[in-house]
Amino acid sequence: MKRIIIKLVIITDFIAIYIGDDVMLDIKDKNIWRELLTTDNPELLEELYSSARIVQKEHYGNKIFARGLIEFTNYCKNDCYYCGIRRSNRDACRYRLTKEQILSCCDSGYKLGFRTFVLQGGEDGYYTDERLTDIVYSIKSRYPDCAITLSVGEKNRESYQKYFDAGADRYLLRHETANTDHYRLLHPQEMSCENRKRCLWDLKEIGYQVGAGIMVGSPGQTIEHILEDLEFMKELQPDMVGIGPFLPHHATPFANESAGTLDMTIRLLAITRLLLPEVLLPATTALGTLDPTGREKGVLAGANVVMPNLSPESVRENYLLYDNKLCTGSEAAEGLRMLDEMMKRIGYEISLDRGDRAGREVREWH
Ligand code: SF4
What we know:
Blueprint: E1 6-11, E2 14-19, E3 23-26, H1 30-38, H2 42-60, E4 63-66, E5 68-73, H3 99-112, E6 116-121, H4 129-142, E7 147-151, H5 157-166, E8 170-172, H6 180-186, H7 193-206, E9 209-216, H8 223-236, E10 240-245, H9 262-275, H10 285-290, H11 294-299, E11 305-306, H12 313-316, H13 332-345, E12 349-351
Parallel strand pairs: 4-11, 4-12, 5-6, 6-7, 7-8, 8-9, 9-10
Antiparallel strand pairs: 1-2, 2-3
Helix pairs in contact: 1-8, 2-9, 4-5, 5-7
The chain binds iron/sulfur cluster.
Iron/sulfur cluster binds at residues 76, 78, 80, 83, 85-86, 122-123, 153.
């Protein structure tokens, strides 16, 4: 029997796959995504991961950027069906950090060497534009050499502009799914896929480094939906992409749904690395929760960011978007040391630099 040769070929920005002698597909083509997402050919998958590593190293060497994550509020006005801190979860133990507490997290993070702070929270009306811009401005004034990433959900364009003017550099807003019907399955009526996409385009136009992304294996998700997600990301050209497995939370309508798989998540990480070669791609905490070696496998499939937690230890276990969240409860310094050892074991090293997207011009902030 003739052996089928499978080869991924990288020629500057053109990445192609050869299957057999004469089938050649461009990585920007939907058909190759489908093939890579569904194949059970181990040779092809190994080609996929090694190609993703080549592209990752070409742009970032062996650096894995660590971002200091501050989960500053778990109040949320929304009721996303998959989320453990949705407003209907009366059992969630709610908390908010004060501006002083947030600054204190940044102080200790800065001393450890972090040069990116990620402020993440639910859509909490307590943090009005005035309060949030004040927090962003205070961090940026104290640490002008640091990047500030916000992840606080859907806002109007004027609000996004205010945060940007105050010093926010990046914004993470996973689109979750680009398919309108699938979006409806995951979110209540008052939320819409159109508005989520509008937010992402607004953020991009304002000048943020923008992060989109999806949950892998969310209820009702099909391969066709994932293909639409890749199509959307090809169009949006985000600077960052958050891809993690869906993990159920016991106090949500999806409590009994199956989790997403490690296999599908790392395939998607690798495809995303090839599709958007310079993207910043986290190996998520959810991946580490799903599998003890999940983050290493994510990095070996092209991921290049990790987000250790700088939040006060007393609140960490209350920011539970899904069950059994990987939460060491250890000091930030200890968490960082463990991550560094983990990365060294697989030939990478943690970098605490700002780590902007390769080739991206960084704005001056005054
Ligand atoms: S996913 Fe985000 S917006 Fe939705 S309920 Fe959870 S914190 Fe709120």
